[in-house]
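User: Quick sanity check before I run a bigger batch. Here is a single chain. Can you write out its predicted 3D structure?
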Amino acid sequence: MPSTPPMPPAPVRMIVTWIGIFPLVLLAQWLLRPLTAAWPLVLSTGLTLAVVVPLAVGVVIPTLFRVLGMLRRRRAETTAA
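Assistant: Done. Predicted structure follows.
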């Protein structure tokens, strides 16, 4: 059974998370703007979060960390060879 690679350092995790969250928030705000333009800020923000958080936690962030893990393994194999 393959061992689990160590977690990347906190600054790397922050950058990867930002790379995933920023485009999601931007896209959600752009798509939802026609619907929420007249809404109070707290309601439009709530709807944006209701869309972004499940997508980020369930799909985008895990995918980005899987890709990061593959890149780290490939880099480790290249430097070990």
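Residues 41-81 form one domain.

User: Great, the batch can go ahead then.
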